[in-house]
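Aim 2 progress update. The chain analyzed this quarter is reproduced below.
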Amino acid sequence: MKPSTKAFLPLCFFLLIGINHWSLAQQRAQIDQKVEKFLEEKKHQWRDLNVPFEDGKVLHDLIVSNGYTSALEVGTSTGHSTIWIAWALSKTGGKLVTIEIDERRQKQAIANLKEVGLSEYVDFRLGDAHQIVKELKGPIEFVFLDADKDWYSQYFKDLDGTIPKDGMFTAHNVLNNISGIREFMELIQANPKYETKIDRTSSSGISISKKK
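Predicted structure tokens:
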């Protein structure tokens, strides 16, 4: 091999790396732009039991700041919180399992995630979460509940063993006077394995419990 050829090979190698990094950065930027545009346009249109825009951002930031790569959502609805969580996981290299009992809502959620280009980060499950959560294997680093409030305590009991150290269990609507919420909050705040606080960004409130 000629000396000039030997000198050229490392240059090609670094050039290919640079092109690959540029391509990934372009893909990242395209996803971010698409998601941001979609969320902003739909900001005041979400119905069907979806979380407020502000709470979706809280979930996104918790996942990104902690580097979580495995997540569970109980209560997909039509996918607002799902988009925020999946968007975060697209940045950490993770995957979301999301459970919804209503087929119509799930179909709309699937369409929404496809529209923003985040489908590959989501495993959609249709069925009764009461049963499905019992069949899930850990570790699950991040859990978000937004389903039947009177079952929050049982969801926590069923999922506690799948959450690793520094993992997080979050639940929506904890500032609302809904059946089951007080019992759940008393249960999780009394658990010595978790440090719990409440995010009050919206009037709904999100409990954030990090495993010690």
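The chain has two domains: 1-41, 53-211. Helices lie at 3-41, 53-66, 80-92, 103-115, 129-135, 152-159, 181-189. These observations will guide the mutagenesis experiments scheduled for the next reporting period.
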